[in-house]
Hints:
The chain has about 250 residues and is mainly α. The protein is about 40% helix and about 10% strand. The strands form 3 sheets. Strands 1-6 form a two-stranded antiparallel sheet. Strands 2-3 form a two-stranded antiparallel ribbon. A two-stranded antiparallel sheet has the order 4-5.
Amino acid sequence: MDDRGGSFVAVRRISQGIERGNQCHSTSAEVVAGSAAWIGRGLSCVCAQRRESDARPSFDLTPAQEESLQRLQSRIDVAYESSILEHQEALRALWHAAFPEEELGGLISEQWKEMGWQGKDPSTDFRGGGFISLENLLFFARNFPKSFQDLLRKREGDRSLWEYPFAVAGVNITFMLIQMLDLEAENESAFDLLYCITFKLMDNQWLAMRASYMDFNAVMKSTRRQMERELLLEDVMRLEDLPSYGLLAR
């Protein structure tokens, strides 16, 4: 067991990069690097055990872990609805976190383009990621405000004339992670933390590739490959052990 604390998830399956159109086809359940998934404080035991009748490892979850997994799955299944007050308040909170010095004119406003939404109504961009993509952005803004603002305002590196739109990129990262991983988490915020790490990694890849707007898909593929490599490292027992975690700043 790891007693250092921290956030973690147990990765049941990592897709092997076989994509057809917008669908991701994953292989059967596989343990990360043949080890016992990720174990940390709060995850008492997510053990990879090999049954005699099955060549693949199986995962034994405690009732608390099963409940947490269900909560996470429930979050993923929630679509963004502009008529729901909670969703409206979350969207306003995101604006305030991004631009605390600028008053928002309304939930439908040209101002949203400043954050990197495609139009004046952000709700039209949530279709790929659902409400959890808004929650991810808000978690990022509240927990790693410096990294969030650096990415939003494109403060670091030699930037392209045609940059990726920040908010839309965030929704794409949520969608990519949902496709890429089947997650089990004692702490639901582990997925949100993984999102923050991946967003910062994506920007690093963007700069390293000297990318421009038309290169966004290539950058996302490169980001996915790099994150899969990091998740497969033998010494990664918590999200904080991922090499790309060090890119984040509070």
